[in-house]
Amino acid sequence: MSGKKNDDSKEERTTSDSAKKSYDSSGSDNESDEDTFSLTTLEIREPAPPVYIGTGLVYDEIMTMHKCDWDPDFPENPLRLTEPYKRCCELGLIERCERIESKRATDEEILTKHTKEHLELTAKSVSMSYEERMELCQNYDAWYCNDYTYDASIIAAGTTIQQMNDILESNLTNGFAMVRPPGHHAMESEFNGYCTFNNVALAAQDAINKGVERILIVDWDVHHGQGIQRLFYNDPRVLYFSIHRYEYGKFWPELRESDYDYIGEGPGKGFNINVPLNKIEMTDSDYMTIVQQILLPLAYEFSPQIVLVSCGFDSAVGDEKGEMLITPPMYAHMIHHLLALAKGRVCVALEGGYCIKSLSEGCALTLRSLLQDPCPLIPATVEPSDSIVTTILNLVKVLSPYWKCFKHYKKLESFEKCVFKEVNNSPPLEGVVFQTSENRPEKYKLTGFYPVQTDEVKRKFQCMIENIIDQTKLGVAATRCCYTFDAQMKGHKNTFSLSHPERPARIISIHKKLTQWGLLDRSLIVPSRIAKRSELLWIHNEQYVDKLKVTELMDDESLRDFPHEAGYPSIYCHQKSLYCALLAAGSLLNVVEAVLTNQAQSGVANIRPPGHHAEYNKAMGFCFFNNVAVAAKFAQKKFGVKRILIVDWDVHHGNATQHQFYRDPSVLYISLHRFDNGHFFPGHQDASATFVGSGPGEGYNVNIPWCGNKMGDAEYLMAFTQIIMPIAYQFAPELVLVSAGFDSAVGDPLGGYAVTPAGYAHMTHMLMGLANGRVILTLEGGYNLKTISECMAACTSVLLGDQCPALKKLVPCDSAAITVNEVLLIQKNYWSCLKFKEKIPKVEADLRLPTFSLAPKPKQYDPRKTISCGNIKSSQTKTTSDISDITTTDITDITSTSGLTASKTDSALTCSSDARITYSSLSLPSAKEKLKDVNQSHNDEPESAPEQEIISAMGNLSLDTAFSASQPKRWVDPDDPYDRVSDPVKKIFSCQKPIEPYRSVVYANDPGSPPLSRFATGHDEYVAIDEPVAVDSSQYKDREETIEFPAPPFRRVTRSSTSEAATVAGSSRDANQVTGGGDESLGAWGGSSRPANVLDLVRTQVRSL
């Protein structure tokens, strides 16, 4: 489904007169001066989210020629490729993909992860005789080769790498490499488990070589991918996440290292995640629990730049090896949630899967999800098994010292025990014999070592799979998203206070932003209408509706007093208020109808006045009719929808929606709202977590009441992964309605929270996994015009199939963890999906872990060593494998024959081992001499001198002690307009003493935040043209600082006094005060002296020497 408007549909092009007016005259007629001013000052502060480009597909017939010549029944056979491809053709998926031409991996690419001997042996197998191949294969566990193995393996690896590169270069959004032989068991110098070359590991290493810094590898093949684990075990650039059958080590490959306590080593400790499945017949519910409770929280904190999936289907129902019960639609859901990461850059590579029927369907639904089709409905999840709960608690136990996303788990006291007994112990299980280098056989069997199902069992599973296929509805609506808006809703306005936050410009600004981003051209425009009286009476009583009717005939003075006299708090009235309220409710009903009649997959209602505070007999909180409640009743009564989920992320509790459905089990109401212990509007105690519904509706009301800190993306997504999505999947709604208030957004004058447009986009994307994608957003609150327009545009973009914008690494605050924990403890009594919420034993971060049990690990990614500072003579060179004895206090220049990367913190120099290092100690005179040499070598023009040399010479003059080092190659995101190739490379300086005012950067950059934006030197302060990053300088006071010169252009700010600069540099006041919070605080821009960029700034200082 392309998401484009269907020009052949008359109904799609037809709108009511009011809707036409809304499109043509959105900012005209009775717009107030204030509103007009607000609209004309609108600007696009952020680029639109990345648009879906296309899905790549790898398939080559040569890979079907690889087969076992001595065993025609061998499970790893060509049907594993031909049948999935055939099923994708049947569903019309192949023609929608971008075919990737076959590419052979080069020797250099293979040698990044495999030995030369391994590569040469693979190539030699082509010329071997039948007997020689059999003899060769007996040396390896479960591996065969034939005339085509080398070619198939080289193409499988090379094309997987090519697909990954196409994704990184934005030629594709995502892709599926249907390749064989598989790869995730292949080790540095060993064939293993049907695998020749490690396709995914080679692709990951190629990405690293291109400068990608964070790669997530998700491996859900039923066998542990020990090959990938070993190749990246100490590398923090790769987060490896494996879900595999283990049975305490009794399942192949029977390794100790496949258990949960193997979490990496050295700098990679905490970056290897094993999820061992210790029983068979795990279900969709078990896997969904893993995704929600472990995978997504880790992924959001890690913030990958690309996701690689080792996509095995041997956990699927009917597979004789896995013996699990994962349904094909479940793979589509897992892929969907991964697509929210890394701007949708997901590269899928086929691994295992040996039940051809379930493998084929799983591949097809995986590809369908990559193509942005809605997730098929799956049955309601059930209680996860005790076994998987135990595994999750064990994982949290060992990972919590390294990851902050698990901070909501409470720790056991020394005298307490976890109710899941295995959590109190450490592996391994007594009596289990693991494979080791000592007990491995001299020769492996060539055939007969794999499980074989009886004909009866095969028939049973074939029937089961066919029933699943028949029950899985793959229908897609005519368009991805519909939209409604009517400019007549501007008529409701406060003529007594033009500054009232609920003003007409709210919907106009949203409409203009959606137009600017081109989203309306891709949407079905739904005509507006007024709600019928009978429809309103599903929620509101007659007396209330009649009472509002009289306002149409009131004069202005009577309208001013009406809300107070009627007992309607926080309301203003206008003669057109009732008509606008009827128009808002009716227009939302039209959107619901468009979605439930398959005219559109999802919908957006840009309407006002809002509705979630309007009680059945009373207006309040800017609301007249409860639009979302009327819409829910409309869906039930007209279309027979049995289960409706209402998610309310407005910053205020939707009191009226809660009251309306408090006893109704057919509507699950979930609200995230600012509570502050009942002191935030509407100020009712029934907004607390303890109010869960009553009677038959008990448990169907979920309040997530925030208290304390300023909540943002990290906190809201924590609530989604830990509470909302688990409960929603167990509820299994047929329709999702979102009370989309954006007053929790950054910059809102009423909410005071900090959720970003990207954060709302991610929440929307998660909800799209439910109800076959039938998600409808209706506007509630939100009073910062710029923010609400970007928020609604970001959500609409995602509904249209665009990718989620990137988020920073998410770390939730402590008060949010307290709230989430409180809600979980209450709701676990009603939702079995939350049974894992238990206390865990405390584990220290320096937990010593055993080493690998098989062959020694190949040396990969060298751990960095630390050089302590001391006195050393000038211009010395030393080559050593252990450089910990090299010391210096005054390093200003570092070069290396091995591409050394270096940094200096806490009076220490850190660099890679086994490096030949030249270092020099330069005094001030020698630095000037070096600068002179630099200028002479470049015709005395500092502008033409290499950046590295200039900054190296500059370092000793700017700071007490400093050094410069070449940055490692960094991948540039082609979709990020702020990540520019042509910009100067960032340079890092360190000083040994606290930084003085005027002589250094005002504050340092946190590694997880955007580039630093203030630099002070002399009596001038330079500020990045891009918005400053708010960082409290007090946290860096009185300690050594790391200072980053960022790429964005800088402007000069003239200082008014010395004391002002000193205050900025060393103050402990609020971060917003430090940065000034806006252009007004930055003073006058320096005209001719303004440097074009950081390098010009440095060159200006060089000239002064």
From TrEMBL:
Source gene? 106063065
Q: What is this protein called in UniProt? A: Histone deacetylase
**Its principal location?**
nucleus
Keyword annotations for this protein, in alphabetical order, are: Hydrolase, Nucleus
Cellular localization per UniProt: Nucleus
Q: Tell me which positions the record assigns to the signal sequence.
A: none
Q: Which SUPFAM superfamilies match?
A: Arginase/deacetylase
Which residue ranges does the record annotate as region Disordered? 1-42, 1053-1091
A GO molecular function term, named singly, is: histone deacetylase activity
Q: Which CDD domains match?
A: HDAC10_HDAC6-dom1
Compositional bias per record (Polar residues), positions renumbered to this chain: 1055-1074
